[in-house]
TrEMBL record:
GO MF term set: ATP binding
Domain ABC transporter, first and last residues per copy: 2-231
Gene designation per UniProt: urtE
Signal peptide positions on this chain: none
SUPFAM superfamilies, alphabetized: P-loop containing nucleoside triphosphate hydrolases
Family: Belongs to the ABC transporter superfamily.
Protein name: Urea ABC transporter ATP-binding subunit UrtE
UniProt keyword list: Amino-acid transport, ATP-binding, Nucleotide-binding, Transport
Gene3D superfamilies: P-loop containing nucleotide triphosphate hydrolases
Organism: Paenibacillus polygoni
Pfam families tied to this protein: ABC_tran
Top-level taxonomic group: Bacteria
InterPro entries in alphabetical order: AAA+_ATPase, ABC_transporter-like_ATP-bd, ABC_transptr_urea_ATP-bd_UrtE, BCAA_Transport_ATP-bd_LivF, P-loop_NTPase
Keyword Nucleotide-binding: yes
Length: 231
């Protein structure tokens, strides 16, 4: 589905990603771990086309998409929930969700019922402004907005950061539900090893802008990569 070969990217004169190779197969939940500042968010921004690839290539369904812009990547089915939620605070929950339909299959005008079913609290808040929601509710809104377009790949940047435990459990349940449906792959940036092991099919560990370790959860013992996660 998505394949990165030797990708390098960064900001200005600063190179952050260095020779990153990554492979995501249909329906997989792939988790990306590592300390703060090692390039995880930069990788998602590069995958979404927000940052340009300086070297290497990105392939989607066997076709090279390295030079595609963000809008084109969204239209072929790549969704993105950035760190910090990024909801529109002056717009209602309903209006925020409807924005997610802009990259949905042609003709889609209604928020999918199954998406609302994953986040039942949002159904009771459709007319509230996004800025009036709690941090956890905003995270659920951002997640639901990305799912409204029925993406084939969803990029999630630390969706549990700063969220109360009950909503962390809700987000875990949604990820597992998506995984069981098998229609949408997920690339998840996450710091919690316990959370990662509960949802992941495959794990990549980053250090200094490169992939330091990778493997299935049962292959990677904590002792083997703990030093890549601690400050």
């Amino acid at each position: 589905m998505l394949l990165l070969k030797g990708v390098e990217s960064g900001y200005g004169e600063s190179m952050v990603l260095r020779q990153v190779h990554l492979d995501i197969k249909p329906g997989q939940v792939v988790c990306l771990m590592g300390r703060n500042g090692v390039g995880k968010s930069t990788l998602l921004r590069t995958l979404m086309g927000i940052l340009k690839v300086r070297s290497g290539s990105i392939h989607w369904d066997g076709k090279e998409v390295t030079k595609w812009d963000s809008a084109k990547r969204a239209r072929v089915g790549i969704g993105y929930v950035p760190q910090g939620r990024d909801v529109f605070p002056q717009m209602s929950v309903r209006e925020n969700l409807l924005l997610g339909l802009e990259t949905a299959p042609k003709g889609a005008k209604e928020i999918p019922a199954d998406v609302l079913g994953m986040f039942p609290v949002l159904k009771t808040m459709m007319d509230r402004q996004g800025g009036d929601l709690s941090g956890g509710q905003q995270q659920q809104l951002a997640f639901a907005r990305a799912l409204a377009a029925k993406p084939r790949l969803l990029l999630l940047d630390e969706p549990t950061e700063g969220i109360q435990p009950s909503i962390v459990d809700d987000i875990r349940d949604v990820i597992i539900q998506i995984k069981n449906q098998g229609d949408t792959a997920i690339l998840l940036v996450e710091q919690s090893e316990e959370f990662v092991r509960s949802v992941a099919d495959y794990i990549y560990v980053m250090d200094k802008g490169a992939i330091a370790m990778q493997g299935e959860p049962e292959e990677l013992g904590l002792a083997s990569f703990e030093h890549y996660l601690t400050v």
